[in-house]
């Protein structure tokens, strides 16, 4: 148990260090985006999250209401 916690913490620290290094090496802080690009970026993120959430909700709805059940002849008459 303790080993897995240490492993997870080490993985997170390594990921943060790699992300900071990639950010500093890429020169992203020097790039300037026009306001229209920020709007397009925001709309894209919003639509992606909305569609993903909707599909995830439909998956749960379908599974809980029996739409994913398989009708097998050996189970007997439906109803």
Explain what you see.
The protein is 70% helix and 0% strand. With 79 residues, it is mainly alpha-helical. It has two domains: 31 residues; 48 residues. It is flat, with a radius of gyration of 23 Å. The N and C termini lie far apart (47 Å). The mean pLDDT is 83.
Order of helices and strands: HH
- Major sheet size, sense and barrel closure: none
Mean residue pLDDT: 83
Supply the helix-strand structural class: mainly alpha
Give me the count of strands: 0
Query: Nearest-angstrom radius of gyration?
Result: 23 Å
The total number of structural domains is 2
* Stretches with pLDDT under 50, minimum 5 residues: none
Q: Tally the helices.
A: 2
Helical percentage:
55-70%
Whole-Å distance between the termini? 47 Å
Question: What portion of residues belong to β-strands?
Answer: under 5%
Fold blueprint:
Layout lengths: L1 H25 L8 H30 L15
Question: How would you summarize what this structure contains?
Answer:
By secondary structure, the chain is an all-alpha fold.
List the main descriptive attributes of the protein structure presented here.
0% strand, single chain, 79 residues, 70% helix, 2 domains, mainly alpha, 2 helices
């Amino acid at each position: 148990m303790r080993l897995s916690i240490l492993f997870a913490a080490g993985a997170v620290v390594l990921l943060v260090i790699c992300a900071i290094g990639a950010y500093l090496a890429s020169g992203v802080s020097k790039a300037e985006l026009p306001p229209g690009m920020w709007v397009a970026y925001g709309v894209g993120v919003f639509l992606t999250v909305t569609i993903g959430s909707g599909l995830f909700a439909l998956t749960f709805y379908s599974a809980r209401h029996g739409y994913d059940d398989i009708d097998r002849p050996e189970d007997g008459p439906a109803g």
